[in-house]
């Protein structure tokens, strides 16, 4: 087994764990929402931060590090389109985590502390974070396709399909995020 093959194995393994754990979490969230299991929704929201610190962040960083090492060690270059797309997708995921997911997780904690786990405010923030996590998951699946297919500028159909998936994902996400937060007064009347 060569050094390159070891790096490739570790890169793929880290990607499987990162993507798989995100997929499993969102599968449980969808199940909890469809069955209106508010206790499960609350527990999943509480555990998402734990998963982020112990699974999502470390394994996403491993994907990046092993991917960079593979590019240096292998026949690839940082100017190859599929590597640029992969790094761009990683940057998008990283920024979503820092700029939205982490602050929204704190808003969930604050809403639960202030209004209770079954409050409209907590539900609003949980819904918002799940919309963005589903968008990120769609992008991660697309990144796997990019890594496998390794498109070049000559692969117009593949690139157009990927761009269409990104646009549909973003449009659905923006639509899902556009709902207003419930007014505290309205919630106070419901919970009293």
What attributes does this structure have?
6 helices, 85% helix, mainly alpha, single chain, 192 residues
What is this entry, summarized?
It contains 6 helices and no strands.
Could you explain the architecture of this structure?
With 192 residues, the chain is mainly alpha-helical. It has one domain. The protein is built from six helices and no strands. It has helices at 3-34, 38-73, 81-115, 120-149, 156-177, 184-191. It is elongated and about 55 Å long.
Number of strands: 0
Helical proportion, percent range: over 70%
Overall outline: elongated
Whole-angstrom Rg: 19 Å
Quote the average pLDDT.
88
Structural class: mainly alpha
Report the span from N to C terminus: 66 Å
- Overall domain count: 1
Q: How does the major sheet shape up?
A: none
Unreliable spans are 185-192
Number of helices: 6
Q: Write the element-wise H/E pattern from the N-terminal end onward.
A: HHHHHH
Portion of residues in beta strands equals under 5%
């Amino acid at each position: 087994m060569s050094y390159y093959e070891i790096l490739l194995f570790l890169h793929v393994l880290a990607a499987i764990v990162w993507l798989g754990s995100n997929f499993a979490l969102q599968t449980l969230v969808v199940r909890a929402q469809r069955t209106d299991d508010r206790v499960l929704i609350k527990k999943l929201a509480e555990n998402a931060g734990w998963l982020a610190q112990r699974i999502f962040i470390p394994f996403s960083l491993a994907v990046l590090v092993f991917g960079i090492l593979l590019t240096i060690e292998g026949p690839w270059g940082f100017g190859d389109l599929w590597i640029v797309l992969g790094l761009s997708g990683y940057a998008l995921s990283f920024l979503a985590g820092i700029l939205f997911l982490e602050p929204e997780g704190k808003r969930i904690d604050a809403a639960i502390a202030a209004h209770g786990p079954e409050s409209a405010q907590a539900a609003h923030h949980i819904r918002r974070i799940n919309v963005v996590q589903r968008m990120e998951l769609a992008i991660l699946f697309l990144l796997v396709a990019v890594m496998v297919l390794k498109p070049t500028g000559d692969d117009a159909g593949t690139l157009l399909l990927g761009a269409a998936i990104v646009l549909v994902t973003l449009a659905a996400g923006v639509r899902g995020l556009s709902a207003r937060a419930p007014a505290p007064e309205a919630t106070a009347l419901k919970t009293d």
